[in-house]
Amino acid sequence: MTERSVVVGINGSLTSVRALDEAAAAAARRGAVLRVAYAVRDADEAGPVLNAALDRVRRRHPRLRAVPVVAVGDPVQVLERLGADAALTVVGSRGLNEAAGRLLGSVSRRLATRRGVGPLMVVRGERPAGAEVVLAEASATDVEAAVFAFEEAELRNAPLRVLRAVRLPVPMGLSVRGLWSAAEGAGLLVTAARTTGPTAALLQQAACPVVLVPSAVRA
User: Which position among 35, 65, 145, 191 has the lowest Cβ density within 10 Å, counted as fewest Cβ atoms?
Assistant: First the structure.
């Protein structure tokens, strides 16, 4: 039986630290193991960043099992492989500097279009404690996203707000501006993953973490 896990990709940037914190909290809520992944060109580079990450997790969640994963190669391919069977994969959307920001933004956008990854959380900003979970439901077929949102709200003991599209002005069914507005005061925005529509803009501009949940048949 596969061990339940939450996967987080780090690179030493400030946003990847925020992603680490979100992933650790998600793993603790689920009673899952946390896999902390660092994709590098040389495995010898990974030690200091991974050690600092694990120390941070242990201080905040002493009972949580955290496992370091060093991988040489493309971060998207590494996270897609690790996230295929994970309950959640978490990445940041901005780096500590411009170059790191481009790299992290590229990873989150590329992962969002991959069919092999499970639920993907992209972290922006800091989540207010106790803030609500928002489900952006563009279609009645977004069953997996709805299930994830309801379960996440229950795990967080947080209120759930559901936004439903009546018309489809954009391929995603809900305008990006409307989703930005909904995410402004939220702790988490959940929506179905799609290979078309304004996903990249949403990941770059949302004020809170966004979870993209793949459907049985991706749009």
Answer: 65
Could you give all domains of the chain from N- to C-terminal order, each with its CATH number? 5-123 (3.40.50.620), 133-213 (3.40.50)
> Which pLDDT score is estimated for 193?
81
Predicted model pTM: 0.84
- In the structure, what pLDDT confidence band is assigned to residue 53 with cuts at 50, 70 and 90? very high
